[in-house]
Amino acid sequence: MNSQERSRTTSTLIAAERAHRRASGKGLGDIAISIQVRSCNALLQERLLRMLEPHGISNVGYYTLMALYSRPENLINPSELCEITGETRGNMTRICDELVDKGWMHRVPSAHDRRRVDLSLSEAGAALLKVVAPEMRKNADKFYKSLFTPAEKATLQALLARLAEGFAAHS
User: Fold this and answer.
1) What is the pLDDT of residue 9?
2) 103 CB contacts (<8 Å, ≥6 apart)?
3) In the predicted model, what is the mean pLDDT of residues 160-166?
4) What distance in Å separates the CA atoms of residue 2 and residue 5, rounded to the nearest whole number?
5) Is residue 75 part of a domain?
6) How many structural domains compose the chain?
7) CA 116 to CA 78: how far, in whole Å?
8) Are 118 and 108 in contact (CB under 8 A)?
9) Residue 116 resides in a domain
10) How far apart are CA 100 and CA 148, in angstroms?
11) Which of 58, 57, 52, 50 is nearest to 124 (CA)?
């Protein structure tokens, strides 16, 4: 985290603390955790965007192509993509239009339902992922290795998994 990002994160926490004190007479308490997670997510997304920018693809475009590539037949329907990525149908349509326009994905009639259109990864899309995915892995490995020991990474992953399970159980 550079000094500007650190300052932004600190400013966000200070402003939230001030707002909570004014609204409730008490400080943030554990809401600070939510703010820190949100801040880390925003910084992570910005970092990913910078890494993907030279390839002409957005974060969500990358996640979409990877979701498609995870399928043995490289075929998926838009509703499944919405579920996997957490994007709305409208936004997923826009994302898919962009990926189709760039030649990384194709729309194909469904083999099971002639009213439905599925999405298929193109050869160009697979070729892009074969370049980008190793870069992303190498960058992430280097980044997290610079911050955490193997034991700390394992603890962080376990805590994040437990946090996700907690959200799922209480939603």
Assistant:
1) 76
2) 122, 124, 125
3) 95
4) 5
5) no
6) 1
7) 9
8) yes
9) no
10) 39
11) 57
Q: Say yes or no to pLDDT of 78 above 80.
A: yes
* 133 located within any domain: no
Nearest alpha carbon to residue 64 among 37, 100, 38, 40 = 100
Q: Domain range spanning residue 25?
A: 1-55
Residue 86 phi, psi dihedral angles, 5° rounding: 80, 15
Interval 110-157: pLDDT, tens: 888 888 889 999 999 999 999 999 999 999 999 999 999 999 999 999
Q: Is the pLDDT of residue 1 over 60?
A: no
Q: What is the dihedral of CA 80, 103, 141, 11, to 10 degrees?
A: -80
Contact 62, 132 (CB under 8 A): yes
Tokens of 71: 């399928």
Helices 31-52 and 3-24: angle between axes, nearest 10 degrees: 150
Task: Count Cα neighbours of 75 within 13 Å in the Cβ-side half-sphere.
Answer: 9
pLDDT at position 2 is 64
Closest C-alpha to 66, from 142, 133, 136, 116: 133
Asked, for residue 3, whether it belongs to a domain, the answer is yes
